[in-house]
Amino acid sequence: MPLYRDEAVVLRTAKLGEADRIITMLTRGHGKIRAVAKGVRKVRNRFGGRLEPFMRVDVLIATGRSLDVVSQADAIAAYAAPICADYDAYVAAGVIVETADKLVSAEHERTPVQYQLLIGALNALAKHAHAPAMVGDSYVMRALALAGWLPRLAACVVCGDPAGSPAYLSVASGGVMCAADHTPDSHRVEPVVLNQFAALVRGDWTVLDSGELLPDTRRLVEEWSEYYMERPIRSLRLLD
Length: 240
Ligand SMILES: [Zn+2]
Prior knowledge:
Layout: E1 3-16, E2 20-27, E3 32-37, E4 56-62, E5 68-77, H1 80-84, H2 87-103, H3 112-126, H4 132-146, E6 167-170, E7 175-177, E8 187-189, H5 191-202, H6 205-208, H7 215-229, H8 234-238
Helix pairs in contact: 2-3, 2-4, 3-4, 4-5, 4-7, 5-7
Bound molecules: zinc ion.
């Protein structure tokens, strides 16, 4: 069987038969892949805990006829231990891997930028660099922006005038609207909420680290992600 080697983050695992698991991973060079890890559910297995969610591994994969098979996995960064030791970080990491899994739907399509964003977010969680929920929400918004759903927040999406106050946000129209143009589906957003939402999208930690995430900002992240991913991120609810 031909082999390929890549670096990957484990997004999800599922049981397969008595002793095996299917591991869903986002890789640096091969996009999202699913591969079987044989014997991984036996007490003594050659993979140890290296194929658990949030692990960043160097993998050697054998291309199979139906499913690929993990032949080797070495840990690169042990994000999993510090993340799992902190409940908030664990929940946020759940949001992150669930988002990556849903957002990158095609397998074997290279997405190095999404991969970079993913390891950046897990690294920040593992190091307790910022409030975990903010890391999760910022990741969600930035991953969606990279996928083409960047919210337009600086100017009205209808007339192009700079966003004033009051500002309205229409998720379906992709950004803010002025008082004159706002459509019935839009809702009014306080400047402080808009500012925080924009900071999440930019990954602007100077703004974000200076305060708590407002409930209205979190709601915008939920609305935006549900609309553009066409389904809710289940783990996001746990963060509330
Ligand atoms: Zn306008």
